[in-house]
Structure formats: structure tokens, C-alpha cells
Design a protein that fits this description.
The structure is a single chain. The protein has six helices and 16 strands. With about 300 residues, the protein is α+β, with helices and mostly antiparallel strands. A hairpin with a 5-residue loop joins strand 9 and strand 10. Helix 2 packs across helix 3 and helix 5 crosses helix 6. The longest helix has 15 residues. The protein is globular. The structure holds 4'-deoxy-4'-aminopyridoxal-5'-phosphate. 4'-deoxy-4'-aminopyridoxal-5'-phosphate binds next to helix 5 and strand 14.
Length: about 300
């Protein structure tokens, strides 16, 4: 699914066949989850292949590296250039791009490595959570405590929490988990941010215990441009009662409607909510049919 015999990846300065790209079993990142990554999308637009918000994604990759002390030697411009080259070499226009900065060095001690390795892979990926409105459940697992890890960095190890929460929710028959923060406020999904709509306004969790998604920021900008009020605030699951609708946002998931959270069923079908209008505007933006929103979240 991710690669075949003709797929190339970028690994430490070279484009190599994916099937031959390897990493040693003593790699520090493999043992400790000490790595950072990004999830980026390229779209086949009328102006050609366009990576959506490449700068924001690669700046976040740098921020994530700095947060954990992983010394990445590629600039934002170089990373963007490699991404476009990799898409061309793999004949892909509509694709998901996965850069991973990691420590391949055999290094079993708990200290930062002297240098970082870089892997970049591209593959065709449909919307991560599909297109049908989702049934969520509040997870018994919380998001990691922001005093324990730099939670606003996209660190590989944090995704053990995501995998555990998502699998637990699916095991109970739901489509996806909704995680609370350490104080019991709604934070986000395992791989996407969460918004709800009440009285024509949108609400979402503030920074602090979430990954501040680039899609989240884009949706906030698009909403404010259309005169829709967006409030970032702490809220408990009970506040979802009486909400008109809800949705999740993420690069891989894009904008996906939420039908319910446990026994709270949203009042309107997603298609009739503000979220659906914003989803359409998001598609127009990534496809280059409209210019980027100017407001900054
Ligand atoms: N939260 C988490 C935990 C995620 O993994 C993601 C996906 N990167 C998001 C939110 C959404 O972020 P973005 O919109 O930047 O993809």
C-alpha cells in the first residue's frame, strides 16, 4: 500500500528504492520513540502539483526537532525542494508526504544523538478517517501531560498514546477516540483536532494540551474570514450537549464530520453545519481555487 518495487524514498541525502531503505535494529529512535515527523499533503491543482502550507509544516518539523534536541541539518527550503523532487520521481501529484527526523545511530543510552537522520516518503493516501460522519467516544486515556513531554511538538513517541486510544475506541465499536487533557477538558483526537458548533459559533480547545494543527489554524482563518466567531476555550464533554454539529481537522483527515460523541448525538447532519461549508472552502483553498486566508489564528 505504501510502496512497491518502483517507489523511491529520500534517505540521508539520496533517493533510494523504498524496498532497499533500511534502518538498524539498534537505532535509538526505534527503541525510545525519539524522533519527530510531519504529515503533509500535495494536491494536483490547476496550477500543477502544490504542497499545501509546506513552510508551516517544515517550520513545525524544525520546532519539533528543537523541542527534543534533535539536530536536523536541512533548511525549510531544502526540505520543500526534496519533497517536490520526491513527488516527481514517484510520479505523484495528489499525495501524502511523510518526513521523519530520527536517530539511526546505535545508541542505547538516554541522551540526545549528535546528528539526526532524515527519511522522506510519499504515498497516495485517501482521507485518513474516510468521508462518513464519525461516532466518537471519550477515551479512558488522556493526552500526555504537557509537563512531561513537549506536547505541541510532533514527536513519534507521543503516538503510542494515539494508537492505544484509537485501538481502545475501535475495540468498543466506535470509529475514533476523543481524548481529554489532564484536567478533564476535551483536547483532541489521536491524529486530528476537534471543533464543535453551538448557536452559529465554533469552539475548539486552546493550545497547551494539543498539537496545534495547521488544518485547525486554516479552518479558524476561513471561519473568521466568513464572519463566523471561533472561540478557543477549555470545555468538558458535557458541554457538547445541545451542540448543532462537530468535526475534526487534520492534514490526513482534512475536515471530517462527527455524528456523535458517546450518547450525545449532534442535532444536525454534518452536511447542514458550518463545518461542511468550511470543508468546501478548505478544499477550494488546497486546490488553489481561492487564495490563502490572511487572518492568523
Ligand atoms: N492532533 C494530532 C495529535 C495530530 O497527529 C494531528 C495530525 N498532524 C493533528 C492534530 C492535526 O494537525 P495538522 O492539521 O497540522 O495535520
Amino acid at each position: 500500500m505504501y510502496f512497491d518495487n518502483s517507489t523511491l524514498v529520500f534517505l540521508d541525502g539520496e533517493f533510494v528504492p523504498a524496498a532497499q531503505a533500511t534502518c538498524g535494529v539498534y537505532a535509538q529512535s526505534l527503541h525510545y520513540g525519539y524522533a519527530v515527523f510531519e504529515g503533509i499533503r500535495a494536491y494536483n491543482t490547476a496550477q500543477g502539483t502544490r504542497i499545501f502550507k509546506a513552510r508551516e509544516h517544515y517550520e513545525r518539523l524544525h520546532y519539533s526537532c528543537q523541542s527534543i534536541g534533535l539536530p536536523l541539518e536541512y533548511s525549510v527550503e531544502e526540505l520543500t525542494e526534496i519533497s517536490y523532487q520526491l513527488l516527481t520521481k514517484n510520479n505523484l501529484a495528489d499525495a501524502y508526504i511523510r518526513p521523519l527526523a530520527f536517530a539511526a545511530t546505535p545508541h542505547m543510552t538516554l541522551t540526545a544523538p549528535a546528528s539526526a537522520n532524515l527519511l522522506m516518503a510519499v504515498w497516495k493516501w485517501d482521507r485518513y478517517l474516510g468521508s462518513q460522519s464519525l461516532r466518537l467516544t471519550v477515551s479512558p486515556y488522556e493526552r500526555p501531560n504537557p509537563k512531561a513531554v513537549p506536547i505541541e511538538a510532533k514527536v513519534s513517541g507521543h503516538y503510542a498514546n494515539s494508537i492505544i486510544a484509537s485501538s481502545e475506541a475501535k475495540g468498543r465499536g466506535f470509529d475514533e477516540a476523543l481524548l481529554l487533557d489532564m484536567n478533564g477538558y476535551v483536547a483532541e483526537g489521536p491524529g486530528a483536532n476537534f471543533f464543535f458548533e453551538k448557536n452559529g459559533e465554533l469552539f475548539t480547545a486552546p493550545g497547551g494540551s494539543i498539537l496545534r494543527g495547521i488544518t485547525r489554524n486554516t479552518i479558524i482563518d476561513l471561519a473568521r474570514e466568513s464572519g463566523i466567531k471561533v472561540t478557543e476555550k477549555f470545555f468538558r464533554p458535557e458541554e457538547l450537549r445541545g451542540a448543532t454539529g462537530a468535526f475534526m481537522t487534520g492534514t490526513a483527515a482534512e475536515v471530517i464530520g462527527i455524528a456523535s460523541v458517546d450518547d450525545v448525538v449532534f442535532e444536525q447532519p454534518f452536511e447542514q453545519t458550518i463545518g461542511a461549508q468550511l470543508a468546501q472552502r478548505y478544499t477550494a483553498l488546497v486546490m488553489g481555487e481561492t487564495v490563502a486566508a490572511e487572518v492568523s489564528a
